[in-house]
Amino acid sequence: MHILLKILTLSALLSGGDVAAQGISIIQGSDGTSGTIMDLGGGLRNYSDSHGNTGTILDLGGGFQTYQYSSPHGGLQSGTILTLPAPRLHDNPPPAGLTPAPVLPFTPRGPIMPREQMAPVVPFSPSTPSTGTFNRFGSGGGAGRFGR
Predict the structure, then answer these.
(1) How far does CA 134 lie from the centroid of its chain?
(2) Helix or strand or coil: residue 100?
């Protein structure tokens, strides 16, 4: 129920422009609940709906509104809503003279990614020692510990 009240209030404040300029606004929630917001002047508005919930909305200026609701069952809820203005393109136009991103060709003439390069293979020669048969501390064999 509390979420429904927030949704109703937010939709009422954001729909139809300035509520104070309209005098009375009739709203309907997603569950079929209908309610009214009546402008009392001085930024003060009165809210009531078909379930018996009543409340006040106070416009603090700068897009801030505060609200307080009471239900017929004794529940009390309050909070603050910040309404942000819609961005206007004529106030902040995009910078002029931008260069667009380059368009790559649809069928490139060469490969997009270069092929992998492998190191050249060195041919084996008998003068090159191999790892299991040469020991700098002894003759060939490759068995045993180094340093003996």
Answers:
(1) 64
(2) coil
102 alpha carbon, distance to own chain's centre: 28
The structural domains of the chain, with segments of one domain joined by +, span 2-82
Burial class for 69, CB neighbours closer than 10 Å (0-12, 13-18, 19+) = buried
Asked if 59 and 65 count as a contact pair (C-beta separation under 8 A), the reply is yes
Quick one: residue 43, left, alpha or beta (phi over 0 = left, psi -120 to 50 = alpha)? left
The pLDDT tens digits of the residues spanning 26-85 come to: 887 777 778 888 999 888 999 898 888 899 989 988 888 888 888 888 888 888 888 887
- The residue with tokens 């609701």 is 69
Structure tokens at 100: 């667009």
At 106, list the tokens: 């649809």
Q: Rounded to two decimals, what is the model's pTM?
A: 0.42
